[in-house]
Amino acid sequence: MGQEHTTDEVKYLSCDPDQDPTPSRLKLMCMVMCLSTFSTNLVSSMCAPFYPRSAAHHGLDSDITGSILGFYYAATVLASPFMAVLMTKAGQANLLQGGLMLVGTSSMIFGAIDILRNDLLYGVVSFVLRGLQGVGCAATDTAVFAIASSRFNKHLGKVNSYLNSCMGLSFMLGPPLGGLIYEWTNFSLPFVFSALLCF
What we know:
Layout: H1 2-13, H2 23-46, H3 51-57, H4 62-90, H5 92-110, H6 119-151, H7 156-184, H8 188-198
């Protein structure tokens, strides 16, 4: 399932840049970009309601917990300039695919850290995984907006408005959705859910 999703993205986003994509392909490309933006940014906010509870159980202070949650955004800021350089070598579609895979994989692993019994290890792994999520988001967002600029130059304002709406929607829905899944299931399932969206 995951391999088909990412393969389709490469197929529909890596067409010949000298050829104008058909209207149907443009619509599909826009849908893929919106879903990618939504899923990677959903990861950043989904754990906000319940992760502090788990962190407190492992002996982490609130300032450390806040730093772990905020490290996602720090990693995104620090990694974004390098993603532009990487994109020139790897290509837009490959960077998008790599970013989605990195966010999804690190989120899936994040769902298993609650089993760690060593509090220091729990904190270190949390930092590392949040950082990897942020790097993946930087790759995805950089690729998405580059594709929007190169493929939708005639409708760039409209496409950017869709992408920003998806980003805002992910921040709005992430906390209540994450809290709801956590209350109904356990610590792992919100991360699994967000990871599957990326795959």
